[in-house]
Amino acid sequence: MATAASSPGTAVASVTRAMRVLAACAEHPGGVALTRLSGDLGYGKASLSKIMGTMEREGFVRRDAAGLFHLSWRLLALAFGHAERVGFSGVCAPVLQALADETDELVQLAVIEGEHVLFVAKAEGPGQALRLLPLVGLVAPTHATASGKVWLASLPEARAIDVIRRRGLARVTARTITSRPRLLAELRRVRRNGYAITDGELDERGRAVAAPILHGDAVVGAIAVSGPSFRLPLTRLAQLAPRVQQAARELQARWPRHVRARDFGLAVRLPGGNRRVPATRSGR
Question: What is the domain extent for residue 61?
Answer without folding.
Answer: 13-71
